[in-house]
Amino acid sequence: MRVLQPCSTQQTGFALKRIQRGFTIVELIAVITIIGLLAAVAGPKFIGNATFETRGAQGTLLAALRYAQKTAVAQRRVVYLNLNTATRAICLGYNSSCSSAVIDPATQAAYSKTLPASVTLGTTQATLGFDGLGRPVPNANATYSVQNAMDLSESPRTIVVEAETGYVR
What we know:
Elements: E1 9-12, E2 15-18, H1 25-47, H2 50-75, E3 79-84, E4 89-93, E5 112-114, E6 119-123, E7 127-130, E8 136-137, E9 142-148, E10 157-161
Antiparallel strand pairs: 1-2, 3-4, 3-7, 4-5, 6-9, 7-8, 9-10
């Protein structure tokens, strides 16, 4: 009578030797985890962080505009945002020169932010106020643009403050 052998074995001498094909699930998970960690840590260094800084600068400017508007509504008084495009500095104050500063809730100091050097800024209103109803002062559309200075082919990110309503988008 003839005995059938499994196809994954091979007879060599007196012992049966098992042929391995592929990887175990543990080996596959370990390799995928290592590749994922390398991609998360080393990937941004190959891409460059100027794009991330541009997005962050847009977010910082957007947050400052919205905070100025909400502070003006909450305190029923005019709050100004002053943007210096040369130094990329943002400050909030109760007058247009920011000498009477709004307090930053995160630091409990004067609200002042400096955007990264890898961005350039453009604006139609370097000094913009919000009245107690959240409307812009002067009552006109204001546009802010944040551009990646390292890669000019990237389109600028634009923030618009609507006249009359003060809607920040």
